[in-house]
Amino acid sequence: MPDSTTARRIVVADDSRLMRRMLADALARQGFEVVGTAADGDEALELCRRHRPDALTLDLHMPGLDGIGVLRALRDGRAEPLPVVVVSAFSPARGMHAVDALAEGAFDLVAKPAFGESFEQFSAELGRKVGEAAQAGRTRPAPRRTSAAPTTPAAASAAPPAARPAARRTSGAPLVVIASSTGGPRALGTLVPALPPTLGAGGLIVQHMPPGFTASLAARLDGSAALAVREARSDDVLDPGTILVAPGGSHLRLADGRRLRLSDDAPQGGLRPRADFTIRDAARLFGRRVLLVVLTGMGKDGLDGAHAVKGAGGRVLAEAESTCTVYGMPRAVVEAGLADRVLPLDQLATAVAEELR
C-alpha cells in the first residue's frame, strides 16, 4: 500500500480524447499523479493491472467494454479492486446507468459540466471525490458483507444489544428518515426493498447526489420495493406507503402541517441536499416519533440531526462499520453516543420494522 504522503495515483478512462485531457489536467493541478489514460474499458483494466493506481475515474459509455463492464470485471478479479469514481454526463437514460454503476460498487459519482456550467466547480468536486476515493482505498480494505453483529468497541459501547431494543411508547405514526452518502445507492438498494409496505407516517431519504441523478435513484428503488419511491416535490404530503427522495441540488425541508418544501438555500458544508436540515425539521415536528437511520457515507452529515432526534426523544439506528463503504457518517453518530442500535446493513430493515411496532 502506498504511503499516505505520496501523490495519489490515478487512471482516467473516457472515450473522448478531449475529456481525458481535461480530467487529467484538472487532477494534475490538484496534486494527483495521473499514471495512465484509457479510451475504453479493456485499456482501463490493463492500466489498472500495470500501475495499481489508488483510484480510477470512469466514463460509462465507451466502446467495447463499457463502464458497467469494468466495474463487474473489477468485482470478478480481472484487476485488483480499487475505488472507482464515475464521471458521467446527465440525461434520464445516463442517469439510470450511473445509478446502476453505483449499485455495482462504484465509490462515487461526479456529473460532467453541462454547457455554460463552471468547469472550476466541477474540477473542485472531481478532486474532492477522487481524493476521498483514493484515501479510502489506502486506509481500509473493501467492505465485507456480513450478518454478524458489530464487535468494534465504539459500536459495543454506543448501542444496547440488538436482541433487546429499548421499548418506547408514542402517540401517532412515526416518521422514518434515512441519511446516506458515499456507498449509499448500493446500501439503499439492499435496505429499501426489504422494508415493510407502509412506514408509519412515511419515509424520507437524503442521499448526496448531483442534480438529476436522484430521480433515477428513486426509479430504481421503486422498481424493487414494496413501498412507492419517488423524488420529492414541493408541497408533497407525507404518505405511509411512500418514501420520498430529496432531489439533488435542493434541501428537503418539512414545513408545518407536514408538507414538504424544496429549498435552494446555499449548500452547507458543500452539500445540497443536507441531511441535517431534513432531520432537524423532522425532530421539531414529530418529536419522539422520529426514527433516523444513518447509512454509509463520508463526513458527518446527520450528526447534528441525530442530536436533535435524541433531544426530542426519537430513535437512531446506524449502519455497522463491517458493511459500510465509508464508515464516516455512522461513525460520527456512534462515537457521539447517539446510536440506539448499530447493525449490519442486512439487519437494518428488520430493525426498522421492530422500531415501528
Would you give an account of this structure?
The chain is α/β, with parallel strands linked by helices and 357 residues long. The chain folds into 2 domains: 9-139, Rossmann fold, CATH 3.40.50; 153-356, Rossmann fold (3-Layer(aba) Sandwich). It has helices at 17-29, 41-51, 67-75, 92-103, 119-139, 153-158, 184-191, 213-222, 275-286, 303-311, 329-335, 345-356; strands at 9-13, 33-38, 55-58, 84-88, 108-111, 175-180, 202-207, 228-231, 242-245, 251-254, 260-263, 290-294, 315-319, 341-343. A 7-stranded parallel beta sheet has the order 8-9-7-6-12-13-14, with helices on both faces. Strands 2-1-3-4-5 form a 5-stranded parallel beta sheet, with helices on both faces. Strand 13 (315-319), helix 11 (329-335) and strand 14 form a beta-alpha-beta unit. It is elongated.
CATH architectural name of the largest domain = 3-Layer(aba) Sandwich
CATH topology of the largest domain: Rossmann fold
Strand content: 15-25%
**Would you identify the regions where 5 or more consecutive residues have pLDDT less than 50?**
141-171
The 3D shape can be described as elongated
If helices are DSSP runs of H or I spanning 4 or more residues, what is the number of helices? 12
Q: How are the strands ordered across the major sheet?
A: 8-9-7-6-12-13-14
Order of helices and strands: EHEHEHEHEHHEHEHEEEEHEHEHEH
Q: Helix amount, in percent?
A: 25-40%
Radius of gyration: 20 Å
N-C termini distance:
47 Å
CATH class of the largest domain: Alpha Beta
Largest sheet: 7 strands, parallel
How many domains in all? 2
